[in-house]
């Protein structure tokens, strides 16, 4: 469940260092859909996972795009490849290379550009590996009618991992803080949380390292790809 107490401390419709876009980039968002999920879907069509990029023959030098952090720099890299407006999905070779963090952060930036309260959350998808929480980033937006935070797996919209990637259930995704609380209360096995495709990045320390749900990025292609076992 999203922690509404955070709302007291921050205006989530305000753009920050990692979600601010420049004036030219804002103009490129003019034709994004009006609905939040549609905006997230547009962001999905602009990013490609490193493993998928390699499979598409994208030059190895471009894989370093996965280390870009600010949304403005992501959009700059994207528009250098194709200057089209941002509501238009790119062909795989014209997408910016990134992980689940980039899908989530770019969607958050687009939502905020429209004045919609949004945040990128880091934590654990509970739907990639049975009985395990896999390191993953999603997007949240504040629904104006219900007042609740809606969790969207931006990267996996339209896939079959979960019935409703556009509105994740409370037990389908845990932020780092939520996973840590469950572990401390004896409600979860901390050793079942970590980074897919690694042997070392599992255990209670993994959830403790992201108490606010804002870790550096998902390090595993396996947990984020739409073409392999865990996502």
From TrEMBL:
Residues 94-156 form the Transglutaminase-like domain. This is Transglutaminase-like domain-containing protein. It comes from the Bacteria.
